[in-house]
Design goal:
Jelly Rolls, seven-stranded antiparallel sheet, six-stranded antiparallel sheet
Length: 236
């Protein structure tokens, strides 16, 4: 597979500002068309995955996803290890702002050791597939007591070309107000960075925790593939 996107080209300040203001940020063209197509092509390569989940069985939605097994494909491992150091300062600033005594290591392997010490040893990166009528209910990807407050999804094919509908949906729960819905349509090869659980939002009496969830709206036609990169490992 081709070389990984040059993470040095990411403007860390702009990324932090977007995450702080919105709880999400888009990075264009992290994956090439060839890389996206190869990940889709390998969807049925059984030895790469540790678990397949049929979403309808658990009332998660309609579609399926597969968790990769260790050792992860190189491109997925590289995405985790190279992007985490850019995101950990944002995560630490969030914890400080909310007066939470949690500090995330600057080196990714040190964070993984923390997960493993807590019994979270199962790989969490996953590939998701939806067909016509498919959707994903609003949820959070936590997997244990140790979790990183930011995660990423990469879009492997094109909205309005390979499928219609299937928008990425974020909701933010606001204090003493109705939840805010955010609907996004990144392009093939783009990465969407977003909040895993909660983020700081400034209110009239200082900062508060704004809980966020994510999901996928119903597909009207075609097939939709995405690659989810979760930085913490799972208990099971």
């Amino acid at each position: 597979m081709e070389a990984l996107f040059d993470v040095k080209s990411i403007d860390g300040n702009a990324l932090a500002e977007a995450m702080n203001q919105n709880g999400y940020a888009n990075i264009n063209n992290i994956l090439t068309n060839k890389q996206c197509d190869e990940l889709i092509k390998n969807y049925n390569q059984a030895d790469v995955y540790r678990k397949t989940v049929i979403m309808e069985r658990y009332r998660f939605g309609l579609g399926e996803y597969k968790y990769f097994n260790y050792p992860l494909p190189k491109i997925i491992n590289d995405l985790r290890t190279s992007l985490y150091p850019i995101l950990s300062p944002i995560a630490n600033n969030w914890m400080k702002t909310l007066n939470i005594e949690t500090s995330y290591p600057t080196v990714y392997n040190d964070f993984l050791k923390l997960c493993h010490h807590n019994g979270q040893t199962k790989a969490t990166p996953l590939i998701l597939k939806y067909g016509k009528g498919g959707f994903n209910t609003l949820h959070q990807d936590l997997y244990g007591d140790i979790y990183f407050p930011i995660q990423m999804v990469l879009f492997l094919n094109d909205a309005d070309v390979d499928y219609t509908g299937g928008e990425f949906v974020l909701t933010q729960q606001n204090v003493r107000a109705q939840s805010k819905a955010i609907v996004l349509k990144p392009k093939k090869g783009d990465a969407l960075i977003f909040t895993t659980n909660f983020r700081p939002v400034k209110g009239s009496k200082g900062y508060y925790r704004a809980t966020m969830k994510h999901g996928v709206s119903e597909l009207h036609s075609g097939e939709r593939y995405t690659l989810g990169i979760i930085f913490h490992d799972a208990l099971s």
